[in-house]
Amino acid sequence: MKMKLLKSSLVSATLLLGIAPSAVAGTGDVALGVKGGTLGIGAEVTVGLLPSLNLRTGYNAFNYNGTATKDNIDYDYKLKLGSLPVLVDWHPIPASGFRLSTGLVFNNNKVDATGKTKLSYSIGGTTYSSAQLGTLTGNIDFNSTAPYAGIGWGNAVAKGSPLSLSCDVGVLFQGTPKVSLAASGPIATDATFKANVAKEEATIRDTTDNFKYYPVVSLGLAYRF
Fold first, then answer.
1. What is the rounded end-to-end Cα distance, in angstroms, of the chain?
2. Dihedral angle at the C-alpha atoms of 48, 213, 83, 73, nearest 10 degrees?
């Protein structure tokens, strides 16, 4: 359901990216841009609605591989960033690039992890052998729709040079992380093991709780048509 929502939103944004320039070409009300920041690398379109009000949308993505240790278990993980923002920018001082931004972000940020093989594992305070546990895998994801609020600088559809720079600083309210762990071994269906897994998931959730407020910082370059 989450991916279906994200894909539908991406299709809508892609259509907007495709038809907006041809629909209002020459009016100075549409700009296309590229950007990079803590949400990843992406592209966006800005459409002027009113002299001091713009609409922005696009898509950001980035993957990163790393390692982490939790409760003496080493994990190989992949951070997968994917988001589609739909934002409204208000420029309270029309002659200034300063803006206040708010809106929703269709969010597919997540982490997939696999525990490295070892002789024994401590799950929820209980030790299990590798033969019992098999392969340990984990996943962390967030709300599929997340509010955003921030400030920034730059008005891609303002009169003047068609080329402009922009920056954004804000917060994505993506909710408390949803943590899941699973084992492939014979112990996976044991009721006591499931209870210990729930304890381990709660511990990981506590250590990642700060990510429910995800910081957004980005720089961009846009061209006005």
1. 36
2. 170
The amino acid occupying position 173 is: F
Question: Which comes out higher in pLDDT, residue 78 or 225?
Answer: 78
Beta bridge mates, 130: none
3-state SS, the chain, equals: CHHHHHHHHHHHHHHHHHHHHHHHCCCCCEEEEEEEECCEEEEEEEEEEECCEEEEEEEEEEEEEEEEEECCEEEEEEEEEEEEEEEEEECCCCCCCEEEEEEEEEECCEEEEEECCCCEEEECCEEEEHHHHCCEEEEEECCCEEEEEEEEECCCCCCCCCEEEEEEEEEEECCCCEEEEEECCHHHHCHHHHHHHHHHHHHHHHHCHHHHEEEEEEEEEEEEC
Average confidence (pLDDT) over 163-171: 96
Dihedral pair phi/psi, residue 23, rounded to 5°: -75, -35
pTM of the model: 0.80
Contact 222, 56 (CB under 8 A): no
Query: Structural domains in the chain?
Result: 2-224 (2.40.160.170)
The structure tokens 């070409």 sit at: 25
CA distance linking residue 104 with residue 96, whole number of Å:
24
CA-nearest of 45, 54, 42, 47 to 83 is 42
What is the rounded distance in angstroms from the CA atom of residue 10 to the CA atom of residue 122? 41
Mean pLDDT over the full length of the chain: 87
Return the structure tokens found at 65: 């591989």
Q: Using an 8 Å Cβ cutoff, are 25 and 215 in contact?
A: no
